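In these records, each integer encodes one residue's backbone shape. Here is one protein:

___
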Amino acid sequence: MSSSARAAQPGWLVTLLASASFARAYTLAVLGAVFSSRLIERVAGQVTYVTIVAGLVALGVGVLIVRRQEISLLRLVPTTVLMFVAWAFASVFWSSDVSSSLWSWVSTAALAILAVVIGHIRDTLQTVRALGDVLRVLLAASLIVEVLSGVLLDVPIPFLGVQGNLAQLGPIQGVFGTRNLLGFVAVLALITFLIEYRTQSVRPGLSIASVVLAGGLAAFSDSPTVLVLALGVGLAVAALAWVRHTRPERRAGLQLALGALVVVGVFVGYLARHPIIAVLGAGSDFSMRVDLWNVMVDMSRFRPVHGWGWYGPWAPREFPFNAINFQLDSTHATGLNAFFDVLVQLGWVGLVLFVGLAGLALVRSWLVASERRSVVYAWTPLILVALMVDSMFESFTLSGLGWMMLVLCAVRAGQSRSWRERIDSRTDAGGQGLPHVPGGSGTPPSPGAQAPDGTAG
């Protein structure tokens, strides 16, 4: 082989980063690390988790560089994500603690990068399969820990936050530290496992066992938000099935009617929040949330436009969080509502950007899922519905696994029905760009692999 031919061959590192096997391993590593962040921090410390994320970000940037010929720079990151992250960075300079706020923003940006990488190196079905594998392991680990703590040893495990209440049928926390986070992850797992079952991407027995595991843990978590979350996702599933089975010429009218119904429902739900709390029988928990939100709204009026600075999870010693907790005589670590949290930290500008990010991603993914034949396209809008419904009662969507999933879904939704897609199409027609691969994986399917619609490729 000539020296010029050897020089033209890519090195082993480039070959590794560009391989489909590395893309799958990288996706599993990212999802596993982020979803088990609390477990890693409790067992090995926060420095270990930060080091893992930093290493994954470096590898992810390397993958994007190696695959730059396959990825359109114009469609790399949705504009809504860029605008929200940019406004959060700007808010660092008017926060009460610039250093703490900056590091919080770095964490937000790092998780967004991980989501962007996954969104471009794996298609929807591959992402569903990877997330399903990770959640099966973590939910099984949660069940094992709860059986060990609540049945075999009958003692709590304080460093994991496990109270050992399984014998009393809950509430349980698993490896996620709180019952609300366990319930939230269990609902995300149910959506993922059911999509796996419908696409026949795993064995039926494994799918059924996974659904039972996730459903059981959701019930044993005894989270007051799981019932509302499951109801919201269930209604979304029914609405999407209705739209998918409606004739194409009637879909537009049905979509508009459903959209108007959602807006009216949210408005009525807000006005009737106190009777709803009474019906749910969760007065103490939800009433505490309402008191917290009222104080947060009052605090946001002092800086209504730009907020008090981005922190994500609260810095308890910083203003205004210490003032909110002092007024309520509590120790809240978040606002227990992503929308109010954004309002306090980033003002009305940030809230509009956040709602625009989530809303545009939901509309895009919903329209795609209603038109495409394969049920796998329903995963993105259903995950977004779960994130948005949960955001009314928790702030998980602003950090950690919730934020990463939001950005991942936004990237997935932005790969179709985007103004940038039309620009890319014109470029491709002129022979100056690469053809777009549906699903955005950037990796040609291997023999015997499954296509995005769940059939053999």
Q: What stands out?
A: Residues 9 and 15 are 9 Å apart (CA to CA). The mean pLDDT is 84. The two ends are 35 Å apart (CA to CA).
